Amino acid sequence: ETGVTQSPTHLIKTRGQQVTLRCSSQSGHNTVSWYQQALGQGPQFIFQYYREEENGRGNFPPRFSGLQFPNYSSELNVNALELDDSALYLCASSARDSGDLEQYFGPGTRLTVT
Amino acid sequence: AQRVTQPEKLLSVFKGAPVELKCNYSYSGSPELFWYVQYSRQRLQLLLRHISRESIKGFTADLNKGETSFHLKKPFAQEEDSAMYYCALSASRGARQLTFGSGTQLTVLP
Question: Which residue in A105, A102, A100, A93 sits closest to A43, CA to CA?
Fold first, then answer.
């Protein structure tokens, strides 16, 4: 069984640029959630995708968007990057249809905006 | 709105001593409560959830709806328990988004 993977591990971008982060869900999981973890804080929910559709969103502006593909992998896109977007971005997958809603986390992508 | 508060950012105890990590929450419905743990250089992982009423690695947590608390306890701390602990809440229905506290870094001293 393969765990959740994320790429890239680290990323440095300039304010105003756009970034795409990628997540491969654990085998058998059809639901992906994205979280932002600022330094010294707990993860904060961005949004969740289930069967390729957004299924819940936290308090994040529209410049944070996502996609889920037929193989259940997912992308997080952030446009017009701001300095405050610097954080660890976590992806978590779960097997919603099985009734087991435990979320399994990936190692994260560290984004630095300069 | 849902909120999770972990009042202690840092907690140090000696090996063999009891440990309690505090968690308070606010939510108008019937939440599910979780404890997640992150060991050094490892990813975030589920430690336990209140609905299963399990004891994992000697840790237990009881949901107290009157005090809106879900404190994590262990009677005898071990050095390998040193980690970052996050309390999290999920609405019992809906997108199952997790609302996390800011975490408590536990250090168990030899």
Answer: A105
